[in-house]
Design a protein that fits this description.
Number of domains: 1
Distance between the termini: 53 Å
Bound molecules: 3-methyl-2-oxobutanoic acid
Strand content: 5-15%
Radius of gyration: 17 Å
Number of strands: 8
Number of helices: 11
Largest sheet: 8 strands, parallel, barrel
């Protein structure tokens, strides 16, 4: 058996090379093996097992009740469906409440699920944690902008960084987290111009959701692009199943639109 069986898998290095050559990175969430396989076989570069599973799978109002066991269960299912795509797991609410707890949680994702990266919400306050995980060889995606786990503190799901002081703070947070060792940034619900500045400043890939077309890549919640999320589809998303024949075709259309910078359009972005 080859010792390089994972060679064709997308890696942190592949993603950085994509940013360097200006190729857009396509990302979607998944929560089970069957959907993961569809994404893997239809050109999605990165699959995130998001704690959004609390809302779209479990029917919860927020992501806060999602547990480590939930994440491991869905993460293992998704991992079985992937051969090529890069796998990220979300650190659920309170799993990173202390450095020790976060190391144990992230270590569990790497060992029990086979994750390639963990994603955590927070700004420069996560610097020490990012440094620690980096030292241990655990790649980190730092989630800035709207952080759904802080919804009660933020007072609702709203665009972040519209005021100058908050925009400056986000630029600084991005710089500090990259310096601490983060290998990826994710910007959620951030004005297009600010997301562009952060993307240009960063040497690591910046993935956007509701953050405009200038990010290095885009991510959406799978159930939103299939039009089956409960309630209204968010402004920053698009129902790709509405104009395509089947799920695989919808995923391919999303991938193509992101690669060609047709998505997101102005109507999916914020000023
Ligand atoms: O939990 C999730 O699915 C996410 C995406 C919305 C980026 O964090």
């Amino acid at each position: 058996m080859s010792t390089h069986a994972t060679q064709s898998r997308t890696s942190v290095r592949t993603l950085k090379e994509m940013k360097a050559r200006g190729e857009k990175i396509t990302c979607l969430t998944a929560y089970d093996a069957s959907f993961a396989q569809v994404l893997d076989q239809n050109g999605v570069d990165v699959v995130l097992v998001g704690d959004s599973l609390g809302m779209v799978i479990q029917g919860l109002e927020t992501t806060l009740p999602v547990t480590m066991d939930d994440m491991v269960y869905h993460g293992q299912a998704v991992a079985r469906g992937l051969q090529r795509a890069f796998l990220i797991l979300d650190m659920p609410f309170m799993s990173d409440a202390s450095i020790e707890q976060a190391v144990a949680s992230a270590g569990r994702f790497m060992k029990q699920v086979g994750a390639s990266m963990v994603k955590l919400e927070g700004g420069a306050d996560q610097r020490e944690l990012v440094e620690t995980l980096t030292r241990l060889g655990i790649p980190v995606c730092a989630h800035l902008g709207l952080q759904p786990q802080r919804v009660h503190k933020l007072g609702g799901y709203r665009v972040q960084g519209r005021e100058q002081a908050r925009a400056d703070q986000m630029l600084e947070d991005a710089r500090i987290l990259e310096q601490a060792g983060a290998d990826m940034l994710l910007l959620e619900c951030v004005p297009t111009a600010l997301a562009q500045r952060i993307t240009e400043q960063a040497s690591i890939p910046v993935i956007g959701i509701g953050a405009g077309v200038h990010c290095d890549g885009q991510i959406l919640v799978l159930y939103d692009i299939l039009g089956i999320s409960a309630g209204r589809i968010p402004k920053f998303s698009k129902n790709y199943l509405a104009d395509t024949a089947d799920i695989a075709a919808a995923v391919r259309q999303y991938v193509d639109d992101v690669k060609q910078q047709r998505f997101p359009a102005a109507e999916h972005s914020f000023e």
